[in-house]
Amino acid sequence: MAIIALAALWLVWGSASPSHALDSMDANREKVSIELGSNASTGYSWSYTVDKPDIIKEMSSRYVDGTVPRGHPLAGAPGKQVFVFTGQKPGKVLVTFSYARPWEKGLEPAQSAVYIIEVYADGRLAVVESADHAP
């Protein structure tokens, strides 16, 4: 019984574990999806900056709730934020994600993730480099 209670507490208050997952690391895509671990119940969310905004365009951004093994959403469970980008013109772009509470101005983010996305002349994209950083 105690183990079940501890597991439930971990699911409700567990950390966001903001690591990333990519749907593709190859150049045969017309879009790139970047998934970042998140927990909306903590107030933290991912935002990003782009060094050359004319090279890529965000097509969508959404939060996906965490689920328990039977597939039902669980309030407070870690989920993920999914960002989808398409190419606008050939080139390489640096995308820097920050995991922070939007109302806490002037503080370092709890986590960051950096991606270099390359857009090829035929419009296909690839993530050519990525790194996670914790303060």
Key features?
single chain; 135 residues; mainly beta; 4-stranded antiparallel beta sheet; 1 helix; globular; disordered N terminus
Structure description:
The protein has one helix at residues 2-13, and strands spanning 20-22, 31-38, 45-50, 56-64, 79-87, 91-100, 111-119, 125-133. It is 9% helix and 47% strand. It is globular and about 45 Å long. By secondary structure, the chain is mainly beta. Strand 7 and strand 8 form a beta hairpin. The chain starts with a helix and ends with a strand. The strands form 2 sheets. Strands 1-2-5-4 form a 4-stranded antiparallel β-sheet, with no helix packed on it.
* Strand residues, percent: over 45%
Please tally the β strands and state the result: 8
The order of strands across the largest sheet is 1-2-5-4
Unreliable sequence segments: 1-20
Characterize the main sheet. 4 strands, antiparallel
Order of helices and strands: HEEEEEEEE
Tally of separate helices: 1
Task: Tell me, briefly, the overall form.
Answer: globular
Cα gyration radius (Å): 17 Å
Distance between the termini: 37 Å
Mean pLDDT score, rounded? 79
Q: Find the structural class using helix and strand composition.
A: mainly beta
As a percent range, the share of helical residues equals under 10%
